[in-house]
Amino acid sequence: MSYKKYILIGLFGAAVILAAGCGYDKTAPEPTSVRRSTDWPSNASFKTQADNAVLTSMTVADIHFLPYRSELNSLGRARLAAIASYLELYGGQVIVDSRQSDELTRQERLASVRQFLLGQGLDAERLAITSGLTRGRGQDASEAALFYEKNLLGDDSASSTAAPLISAGGGAK
């Protein structure tokens, strides 16, 4: 193919693109904006679940601070504000779960959490802040054995051989 054919093909392609662009309707309405996540009706149940999680753990972790610093980020401030409302109503203890190897940063984070909660109007004498692991129920030994067997066997046949998860009294073992 000669260079003239390439030029003709290029000009033809440009004409097609130009013709397609001329059909754009500039008077068409703007696309509607996406609904905000706060408008969804299911958010009420998610908020309740998130509030229950905050109330259960009362924990602030490394993700709630600026990296390698003691300042709270916006997520940390929001979480501590939620924790403060629960502390005011029910009392309790706030745990700062930090994996920072620098002891000074850990201590500064504890002080930062304390300062924020005091700024929320909590009583300094009733405020308990400790450094440690996030608390939670965890797994019972019978649950761990059951899940181990299920994963090992790959089916639900393990449920007949493992100890029951609920005792006769109705509570968890």
Tally of DSSP helical segments: 5
Helix content: 40-55%
| Shape descriptor | elongated
Kindly, what is the distance between the CA atoms of the first and last residues, rounded to a whole number of angstroms?
Answer: 83 Å
SSE ordering: HHEHEHEH
Q: How would you classify the helix and strand content by structural class?
A: mainly alpha
Strand runs, count: 3
Mean pLDDT over the residues: 75
Sheet with the most strands?
3 strands, parallel
Unreliable residue stretches: 158-173
Give me the side-by-side strand order of the main sheet: 1-2-3
Tell me the Rg in angstroms.
Answer: 29 Å
Proportion of beta-strand residues: 5-15%
Structure description:
This protein has 173 residues and is mainly alpha-helical. Among the domains are: 42-131, no CATH class; 136-166, no CATH class. Helices cover 47% and strands 7% of the residues. It is built from five helices and three strands; from the N terminus they run ααβαβαβα. Helix 3 links the parallel strand 1 (59-61) and strand 2 (93-97). The longest helix is centred in the first third of the chain and has 20 residues, at 3-22. The chain is elongated, with a radius of gyration of 29 Å. Mean pLDDT is 75; it is low at 158-173.
